[in-house]
Target: 26S proteasome non-ATPase regulatory subunit 5
Amino acid sequence: MSSQDTEQYRLFLGRLQREENKLAALTDIKNLFAYKPAGEVTTAIRDVGISKILKCVNVPNTMTVDLTCEVLKICFEKFEPGEVIKHYTSPIMYLLRHDKSCVRRLAIDEVHKAIRTSPNILPVAEYIDVFVAVGQMVTDSDVGVANAAVLISSSLPNEAYPKVLEEMQIALGYNSSSSCNLFEVVVNISSRSYDLFKLCVDMKYIDAMITELQTDDVLYQVNILELLSRLVIQPHGITYLVKNGALTKISAYVAELRSNPLRGLLIPGYMKFFGSVAHNYPKEIFQKHAVLFDIVFEAIESGDQAVMPVALDTLGFVGETVEGKLCLAALGGRYAKTVENVSLLIKNSNSETKIRALNCLAGLISIDKDPTVTASKPVDHRVTLMTREWFRTLDAKPMETLFEICKNPFPDMRQAAFVLLDAVCQHQWGEELVARAAGFVEFLLDRSIVYTKETNESKYDIIKRLANSPAFQPDIIMRLQTYVEQGPFYSESQLEVAMEDGE
Model:
């Protein structure tokens, strides 16, 4: 900014002294700074200061406060990330604790900008008070401010947490929303490293989460279960819950749900939790807590729309791994009956349920989502036999039935059918069934059918599998390989353009 602009800024600041001039003066400052280069604005602010603008957040006039926040935002945006906090630490601390939410939002956004750029941009020793103040703002009544506090507090340098977590304990004395925000930070940082998880354990946060499951607030319980579901996928998370008896305690809560009038609201949360555990550690769950799957099986059998969709998702998720499939099969007749029920839902239910059931059966049959399965390692013969039998529950002629669903005009249904077809084609028996199904290959190769991008890609992945299958005759293999070479989105119009270019 020129010296004339700087003097103009000084003049506008002087006019802020009188109440009747505040709105006009703030507007003038806003217009002066809005389109000036960052370097010029920051030079003027450092020369003249912003303390007089900051004082305007304390006036009773709401319009003046809102405009002051706009002006400060423009000023702050001209600085590099972290610079405002470094040059104006005390004002930022004051703004973070202000009684007006728009002011707090302005300040916390500036901290977020700094931490988002680099967690180490603000040295912990110098700015620990800022980090603590932000951590305590997970209790803020303004949802936007509280959410920003969660994001920032989940991304601090590790050395900040002993102090920050200690001071964040005040959130446990507030409402359930504040406690949930605190627990979200705990889960987020526990997932970062074992040392941070141990710190959370030592401060009794993990135990507090388990204890809070006994609350009468159903929504609060569901939120805690969601957070615990993320924690237990970490090796140190599940190990702790097993060793300290928390998993057994949670299992007991599940047993009590049968007599709970609100079980329809709670069961889905518990299903997701144990589904997450069983997906990653199936043996541990099936050996000691297999009874939990009675709830999943009962939900699928009952047809209760409040719990059945989550039960289908949970069963399919648990069965995605080879170990999960083997553990489920070991449950015997009850599980076999459930697979039959899933197939019945595919044929005889509303569209949403059919889609969930198709995805569930796809999870049970698929082997590609298991990281232990590799192309160089043969598939466990037990899995081959089991998955083939599970697919046969769909119909006496299961591939013909799936073929019909793949032709369904509704995109979501068709996509779910292709997901199941892809799972089936991961097995040699599936490739052979496709080869024997009259017209199925021609249907797959037909590019005139309009699909969504997602379904086109799914179909392409299936054809890529089939293109190397010994189940087909050489002429079919050649057509499949040509399709693969042309890509998922090739059209006849591309061929015509290519021919015209050649001429």
Remarks:
- The chain has 32 helices and no strands.
- The chain has a mean pLDDT of 91.
- The two ends are 62 Å apart (CA to CA).
- The longest helix spans residues 263-280.
